[in-house]
Design brief:
The structure is a single chain. By secondary structure, the protein is an alpha/beta fold. It is about 30% helix and about 30% strand. The protein is built from nine helices and twelve strands. Strands 3-4-2-1-5-6-7 form a seven-stranded mixed β-sheet, sandwiched between helices. A five-stranded mixed β-sheet has the order 9-8-10-12-11. Strand 5 (about 65-70), helix 2 and strand 6 form a beta-alpha-beta unit. Helix 1 (about 15-25) packs across helix 9, helix 4 (about 130-145) runs parallel beside helix 6 and helix 4 (about 130-145) crosses helix 7 (about 245-255). The longest helix has 19 residues, at about 300-320.
């Protein structure tokens, strides 16, 4: 690969824009970068004017990696076009939810389960944003102490709903959320199923089990949308298999790939200060007996979407060297 890879980004919304900027910021070996969407247009992304092309089968000729962006969790784009891209030689990394629970499709967070990439068939799923940051923080606890149960409450930014969510907060746009978001907290993200869990909550349950390789893990989420532009926060309680001390837990977080922990257990990150940072931040750590409690924050457009997708491609490129 002397002259880089040809990469397509499908979708020019918030996540698509972050994908373009992350590919550049992380110095991914690019030969050509194509931005594709439903309609042709000129659009400025990351300081560059792109001629956005139509996302159709022929647009994937010669493409090595195709990132499907769209709004976080949006269904449909990869279902319509992934097969066409793969048949033309591309590896598809999909940020949508269509294939995440398909047993034949790897669902990958590189710090957690990069080995799942082995033997992929051309399609790799990028997890839900709230799931991603949680499993990054859970992995050192699962590795060191074993985990039996997770209880999590999320405080999720409006950018997780795409531009419409941002406009609902900034301009009062209606119809995005069931109730006004400004000055409010809405404990429903998606639709409520017969089991009482919302779409977002079911994603956290099922995706976490698949990524961590713990099919019987108890996960009890409550997903809440709050009037924050960018950055998802989570309050997490973990029941461990063996008893822990606070210092053991702090050491586990300090050594964990992808986790940013200052070393001050009582300190706390906030969405405002971590926006634009690609790591998973933890603080407010409490631990004793078989219980660990902590606060977890990440930029939902970066580690929760674009950064994780680029890291998947980086892991594949590294495996080819």
């Amino acid at each position: 690969m002397p002259d880089g890879y040809t990469v397509a980004v499908v979708g020019a919304g918030l996540v698509g824009e972050r994908l373009v900027s992350e590919l550049r910021r992380r110095d991914f070996p690019l030969k050509e970068l194509r931005v594709l969407a439903r309609s042709e247009r000129r659009q400025e992304i990351d300081g560059t004017i792109f001629e956005v092309g139509i996302a159709g089968p022929d647009a994937f000729e010669g493409v090595d990696f195709a990132f499907f962006a769209g709004t976080e969790g949006e269904k449909g784009a990869a279902a319509q076009l992934a097969e066409a891209a793969i048949s033309r030689g591309a590896v598809v990394i999909d940020n949508g939810s269509d294939f995440r629970l398909d047993p034949e499709v790897p669902l990958v967070v590189p710090e957690v389960n990069a080995r799942a990439l082995e033997g992929h068939s051309g399609l790799i799923a990028n997890p839900n944003c709230s799931t991603t940051q949680m499993v990054v923080s859970l992995t050192p606890l699962a590795r060191e102490f074993g985990i039996r149960k997770v209880v999590v409450s999320t405080y999720q930014a409006v950018s997780g709903s795409g531009r419409g969510g941002v406009e609902a907060l900034e301009d009062g746009k209606e119809g995005v959320y069931p109730k006004p978001i400004s000055g409010n907290a809405i404990p429903v993200i998606g639709s409520i199923g017969e089991d009482g869990y919302s779409t977002e909550e079911r994603k956290m349950i099922l995706e976490s089990r698949k990524i961590l390789g713990l099919p019987d893990l108890e996960v009890h989420p409550t997903a809440v949308r709050i009037p924050v532009h960018t950055g998802h926060s989570e309050s997490i309680y973990v029941e461990t298999v063996r008893e822990v001390t606070r210092e053991e837990v702090l050491d586990a977080f300090r050594a964990a790939p992808g986790v940013t922990f200052s070393g001050d257990a009582d300190g706390f990150p906030t969405p405002l200060e971590i926006a634009g940072d690609s790591g998973v931040h933890v603080g407010r750590v409490r631990a004793s007996g078989n219980a660990v409690e902590y606060w977890c924050v990440a930029d939902n457009l970066l580690k929760g979407a674009a950064t994780n997708a680029v890291q998947i491609a980086e892991a594949l490129v590294g495996a080819r060297v």
